[in-house]
Amino acid sequence: xxxxxxxxxxxxxxxxxxxxxxxxxxxxxxxxxxxxxxxxxxxxxxxxxxxxxxxxxxxxxxxxxxxxxxxxxxxxxxxxxxxxxxxxxxxxxxxxxxxxxxxxxxxxxxxxxxxxxxxxxxxxxxxxxxxxxxxxxxxxxxxxxxxxxxxxxxxxxxxxxxxxxxxxxxxxxxxxxxxxxxxxxxxxxxxxxxxxxxxxxxxxxxxxxxxxxxxxxxxxxxxxxxxxxxxxxxxxxxxxxxxxxxxxxxxxxxxxxxxxxxxxxxxxxxxxxxxxxxxxxxxxxxxxxxxxxxxxxxxxxxxxxxxxxxxxxxxxxxxxxxxxxxxxxxxxxxxxxxxxxxxxxxxxxxxxxxxxxxxxxxxxxxxxxxxxxxxxxxxxxxxxxxxxxxxxxxxxxxxxxxxxxxxxxxxxxxxxx
Length: 417
Known about the structure:
about 425 residues, 3-stranded antiparallel sheet, globular
C-alpha cells in the first residue's frame, strides 16, 4: 500500500474555504474530552490506537493549506498519544478540563501531516482524562463520537483476544468519490434550484455588527453563557413535543426563532442547522468530515400559535434535509454574499447534540463527555446538549445584540417554557 492523492470532498471544501478566510484562526478545531473511571490497561489502550489509525481513513488524511490532501498508509502515521501525569485529588478533574480548553486553542498546521491530537491525562490508576481534537477538515462532531466508540471496541477486542480476521475499515475515501459524483449529477442541479427558491436573497442581519467592524481580520473572542436545565423540565418539554408529533430539537429551534423575531421585531428569520449528511445509514459508522449546514428560513406570523409555528418549522427542516448535500458555499456564492459585506448567510446556528453514548475500556468507563471551550468562535449560537443534566450554551457571535449575553440563555429558556 502506498500513499495516494485525494481531492477534498464537497464537505471538506467548505471547511477549507472557511479556514482560508481566517488564516491562523483555531475556530475550526473540534473535538471533546471525557474522564475514564476505572482500571485502564495502558498497553492495550496504545495498541488499540494503532489499530484505530490503521482502519480509519480520516486519521490518515494529511491535508495541505493549498486545498490538496493525501491518504497516508498506516506505516506513515505515528500513533501519537501524549501522556501527562497530573496531581491526583479533588482538583484533578478541574485540571483536566483546563488542559483540554488550553489545547484546543493551539492551531493545527495544514502541512501534510494528519491534523489531530490525542492526550491522555493520568491522575491515578483509576482516573484518566482523554482528549481528542481535530481540525474540522478531517472530522465532524458525529465522527468524534465514532472515534471514541471505535477505540473502546478495539480495546475490548484486544483485551479479550476476540479479533478474528480483518477489522472492517472506516472508508472515508469512498465518501469523497460519492460527493464528487454528486457534484456532477442532476441531483446537484435540483438541490441548487431548491435552495435558490428558498433563499432568493439575503435576509436582513439579526445582530448588530460591532466587533468585526473594528477588527476586519480576526474573529471575535469567545464568550460563554451557560444554563443548566432541570431534567424534569426537559422531560416535560420532550413529552409536549412528542404529543405534537415533534421533537425537543424542534422546540428549541422554534423558541430560538420566536425569541429573535420578538427581540428584533423581524419576521424573516434564518437559523443555520447542522445536518449529518451521511446518506442515511450508509456512512453512519464512518469517521470523517461529512456534516453540512442548512439555512432554515422561516416567516413568523405573529398571529400563529406556538404549535402552528413549531409545525411550520418542522416542515421546513424536513424539506431542507432532503437537499442536505448541497454545499453552503455554493449558495453564498450565488447570493453574492461577500460583495454585500456578509461573511455568512445567517447570524445564528443551533446545534443540538447528544453525548450519552456508552464507551468502555474493559472495566473502565468513559463519563462526563464535554466539548472544549474555544478561544475564538465562528458564527454560532446555542448548542444544547442533553446529558445527565440538560444544559445549553450561548457563544458570542462577531455581531451581538443589545441585551447582555448573560441574560439571553435564561430569556430563551423562558421562551421555551
